[in-house]
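In full, the data.
>
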Amino acid sequence: MIKLYGFSLSNYYNKVKLVLLEKGLAFEEVPIRPGAAACEGGMSPLGKVPFIETERGFLCESQVIADYLEARYPTPALVPADPWQAAKVRETITYCELHVELCARQLYGQAFFGGTMAPEDIARVRASLTKNLAAFKVLARFAPYAAGDTFTLADCSAYITLPLAALASKLVCGEDLVSAAGIDWKAHAKLIEQRPSAQRVVADRKADQERSVAAAKAEKLSP
């Protein structure tokens, strides 16, 4: 059985989990945070999550894992058989994660973790994110799915990326830059959340958030 390492508050963990659920694969979740523990035994050399354990060893990086799962378990297909259409799906994923998520990630410290960014840094990220979202909009189809008329790996990426980028930009920049770019991420999220796989991911994430909050409160109250 595949083991999925990481934690459900990680967007990339949830991306891989979504793929596993869509494939109907049996898997075990192993809670682990990024850091030294994840490096042990070469599991994830940089200590990043998620990573998986298979009968042949460990594999890290979410898109590498997703591509492996697609190749190893091709049914149901989450990438088109046509080489051009398959490339367009991966192009959409690359733009979503490399140019949107990594750019928006610079805002997460202030948006979600109590950090503070200098005004000039906020302005720089805002300009880059605005540019990158406009480029992403050219490629993404949302017809109604991210790469066309069927659910693909591109939806697993967009679903875990666009809502975070929208919220982070709203909290730090004062505007939902994803919506401002003309990307109806809310309609896409609503569509994906009709799927049992997404419902499971959301429910598990909320449950873990509640447990984390309860644990933090208990720690504060303890003598």
